[in-house]
Amino acid sequence: xxxxxxxxxxxxxxxxxxxxxxxxxxxxxxxxxxxxxxxxxxxxxxxxxxxxxxxxxxxxxxxxxxxxxxxxxxxxxxxxxxxxxxxxxxxxxxxxxxxxxxxxxxxxxxxxxxxxxxxxxxxxxxxxxxxxxxxxxxxxxxxxxxxxxxxxxxxxxxxxxxxxxxxxxxxxxxxxxxxxxxxxxxxxxxxxxxxxxxxxxxxxxxxxxxxx
Length: 212
What we know:
Blueprint: E1 17-19, E2 25-29, H1 33-47, H2 55-74, E3 77-83, E4 86-87, E5 90-91, E6 95-101, H3 108-115, E7 121-125, E8 129-138, H4 141-145, E9 152-160, E10 167-174, H5 180-191, E11 195-196, E12 208-210
Antiparallel strand pairs: 1-11, 1-12, 2-3, 3-6, 4-5, 6-10, 7-8, 8-9, 9-10
Helix pairs in contact: 1-2
């Protein structure tokens, strides 16, 4: 479960975060727009490599991905991950949107108000420190369009950005309700790898680093 490290080129090194995702998860940086669009184009090129007779399907897939990436950016997202994992030939669809929210992580009550409906529980991440976690289910527009009988399973993590009045939000989602518990275990494992780059410590060469 590992992607190669992407060095953080920003001068704001103290507010960079890193995490480890499975190899079959594709990373789409959401800012700036040009980088977002280039990443989506590269993904479409990879997924349709050797397929020249599906221009309509290819165009539709690119439009959907661009729409998802733009929606994530509009929510304060800085990076979007999409899962291309498969088990026994069955795609295990999932996504992770990482967002920065311009509100401090003061208490669970504040996070609960920020999160909306659903119970929020305190957790401590092995590398990332204190956080809040919420699991919920909802029927999304995408699943309704597909006519699926299942609900999306969503796991959200909220944590303070060091030395800032900001919160980092990790939103994991999967439409695979029959295997939701197994997917949630994977989500929790990924969240457990998140850590912050500190002034006097260099990255360990495993995590993928990003910031705003």
